[in-house]
Amino acid sequence: MKFTAAQIAGILEGEIVGDPEIEVSKLSKIEEGEEGTLTFLANPKYTPYIYTTKASITIVNRTFEPEHELETTLIKVDDAYKAFSKLLEYYNMVKMNKTGIESPVFIAESADCGEGIYVGAFTYISDNAKIGKNVKIYPNVYIGDNVTIGDNVFIFAGAKIYSESVIGDNCVIHSGVILGADGFGFSPDENGEFQKVPQTGNVILEDHVEIGAGTTIDRATLGSTVIRRGVKLDNQIQIAHNVEIGENTVIAAQTGIAGSTKVGKNCMIGGQVGIVGHIIIGDRVRIQAQTGVHRNVNDDEVIQGSPALNLGDYNKSYVHFKNLPKIVETIRKIEKANKDE
Question: N or C, which end of the chain is more exposed by having fewer CB within 10 Å?
Fold first, then answer.
């Protein structure tokens, strides 16, 4: 799709310096700009590139005054970085604003689909599913029995939503996500064989949740696994049965959280963190990458290591870890000197 400088300036409430009818169809970095692309200048260190860029349109701050002749058309705004971000959001919204039902798909007669939805080919929507307004369901998605999906939700290709799952408004489910698979529940019998414990609960995502590609969230054994409002999960995360993640918590890739653990609000959890089951992590906790959490964590703690230590204690200890060979050598010299005496 193409946009003119005049159209872009209208969206951003900007001022045009140059050709208002020039068109762009792609985005680019300012140093890699080509004809027909749109770029921006926000960081002063990139200023030299504005005189050499081939980009057709460049968004700049209103305070920018060129020192040399320019080939690019300028759109002046109050904040170039925020304006470009706004334009990216708008572009994304236009690009993904699909409607209609492709073929072939299966939609059960008992399913209830809202207005303005898009359903991609080879999607399967099961009995009694309830889908809100303006939901975008991309190809090869499976939606199980009795699933409820709110308004303005995006579910990308290949996601699997098991039965009874509940998804709130304005959520984003990326490709390969699995919501509501059985939790890892097995119990040994008298012969030492493991018997499956039925997993009869569900998964609940509240509003404004985003789940990254390849992430799995297991249904509860009883009750619900709950992801609270505003949570953002990266790619390839494992959330086990009966876990609860508090509001506005963010978790980076390859983290695993074992069953029945409760994570508080506004936490930041780094990549490859492992968290044991049946513990409580407080609000505003910071957990550094590759930490192993084996205990309850109080509000506002910052922890690192495996098993996890307070970050300050870990850093102090790490100085000694690095010097351990020297320390051992010193101890040996002292022991030898004592023996010689």
Answer: C
State the residue range of the domain holding 117. 100-311
Q: What is the tens place of the pLDDT at every residue in 204-239?
A: 999 999 999 999 999 999 999 999 999 999 999 999
CA dihedral 102, 105, 109, 114 (to 10 degrees): -40
The Cα–Cα gap between 308 and 271 comes to 14
327 lies in a domain? no
CATH code for position 20 = 3.40.1390.10
12 is a domain residue: yes
Judged against a pLDDT cut of 90, whether residue 329 lies above it is answered with no
Q: Does residue 263 contact residue 277 with C-beta atoms inside 8 Å?
A: no
Q: What are phi and psi of 111, to 5 degrees?
A: -75, 150
Question: Is there a single domain that holds both residue 257 and residue 110?
Answer: yes
Residues assigned a catalytic role: 241
Inter-residue contact 125 to 105 (CB < 8 Å): yes
Pair 235, 136 in one domain: yes
Task: Measure the CA angle with vertex 141, ends 135 and 145; round to 5°.
Answer: 85
Q: What is the pLDDT of residues 241-254, one digit of tens each?
A: 999 999 999 999 99
Q: Is residue 150 one of the residues assigned to a domain? A: yes
Separation CA 180–CA 215 (nearest Å): 11
CA atoms within 13 A on the CB side of 39: 25
Whether 318 has a pLDDT exceeding 70, the answer reads: yes
Which residue has 């072939």 as its token pair? 104
DSSP annotation of 20: T
Whether 59 maps to a domain, the answer reads yes
pLDDT at residue 341 above 80? no
Q: Tell me phi and psi for residue 312, to 5 degrees.
A: -60, -45
pTM listed for this prediction: 0.81
Q: Indicate if 151 and 230 belong to the same structural domain.
A: yes
| Average per-residue pLDDT for the chain | 94
Total domains present in the chain:
2
Q: What is the pLDDT of residue 203?
A: 98
Residue holding tokens 């209830």?
112
